[in-house]
Design goal:
The longest helix has 22 residues. The chain has two domains: 205 residues, Alpha-Beta Complex (Spore Coat Polysaccharide Biosynthesis Protein SpsA, Chain A), CATH 3.90.550.10; 36 residues. It is 44% helix and 20% strand. By secondary structure, it is α/β, with parallel strands linked by helices. Helix 1 runs parallel beside helix 2.
Amino acid sequence: MPVKLTIITINLNNAAGLKKTIESVADQSYRNLDYVVIDGGSRDDSQQVIRNYETFINSWVSEPDKGIYHAMNKGIRKATGDYCLFLNSGDWLATPTILENVFAQDPEADIVAGDVYFYNTQQKAIKWHVPSPDQLTAKTLFLGTLPHQATFIRRAVFDKVGLYNETLKIASDWLFFLEALLKYGCTYQHYQGTIAYFNMDGISCDPATESLPRREQLAVLANEYPLFLPDYERLDQLETQSLQWKQSNEYRVYHFLDRIGFISLGVFLRRIKRVIQRNLYRKR
């Protein structure tokens, strides 16, 4: 029996983005879908957009909510699928056959994550291609999280782990994956392909909230996992130093010399020097 997927879209006053998202779902060749739209009582044309596409939507509501994660939790409670995918307003699926391709591989893991394109709507161009890791480690979750618009989560996992923490504004995805994978031992699989486009107009890419994810993560670690905190801060420091090195003029020079083979030649000559020195020492 084909896997049933619940796609959950949350929206607030983004009629144009909502239309794009719904259309990408409606165009899917994979039909075993349960589509849930949670609108936060929008005052623009969002409700009309929903009504225009109502034949593709299994359940929807438009009423005030308490924020992103409250809205996502409302969607989870309505979900009837085996897996859930959060494709929020403004994001869209990569191709009309992507869901068919994913479930043709018969995924079995609790959490299946694919890749995502970060799309700059101002430049109308892909800014980054962000792959999910083949192997998930604590380091992965210390430095970032999985992209929710490209991650399929078994509905039963929410019964096991719990719903999203509604007290957090932006880091509840991270906390959910941290606890699901490290605390509850949920299984993970990487789908080798791009699932969705992520619209960079949202809160997670807003310069005004750039430091918010780290602040929330530090607060969670301090309260819930204090033994992790020193390692988290040290890892963050090392990553910052690595980034600074890669942006330096010295690194550019090193990279150029490495590209033309000069570094490899130097290593080779150094090895020859050591061999000669050892032979001379033995003869003495």
